[in-house]
Specification:
124 residues, mainly beta, 7 strands, 60% strand, elongated
Length: 124
């Protein structure tokens, strides 16, 4: 199948991890973080190994709230990875997505760096 994300909102990482900090503006209770990711293995595009959510009230000291690798496809070649955790009051959220890194033997484009694409982060 042809590799086409069909949107200019996708951001990509070649062989490296993604890390982003989000300021929610005010402290609020959160218990779930999701990333919308792309998966086109034939085009070296792999979902993250896992995602992590970190929380903070000062934007400096972050605590790991949870790690998850659940993946649910919503359209062909893309879907949501989510992590659920105990409710925590937080103003700042750090999102970490672990790239697959070097594509393993037996997979399309084995030995090359995996591409990872994310176009949306949802905090609930």
């Amino acid at each position: 199948s042809k590799f086409a994300l069909g949107s200019t909102e996708w951001l990509g990482w070649l062989g490296i991890d993604m890390e982003a900090e989000i300021d929610l503006g005010i402290e609020q209770s959160i218990s779930k973080l999701s990333c919308h990711v792309a998966q086109y293995n034939g085009s070296r595009c792999y979902i993250p190994q896992y995602i992590e959510a970190y929380t903070s009230n000062d934007g400096k000291s972050f605590n790991l709230a949870g790690r998850g690798s659940d993946y649910k496809e919503d359209k062909q070649g893309m879907g949501y990875m989510s992590v659920h955790f105990s409710p925590v009051s937080s103003r700042y959220v750090k999102v970490f997505a672990k790239n697959q890194g070097i594509i393993p033997e037996g997979r399309p484009s084995a030995g090359g760096k995996a591409m990872m694409f994310v176009d949306e982060v949802i905090i609930e």
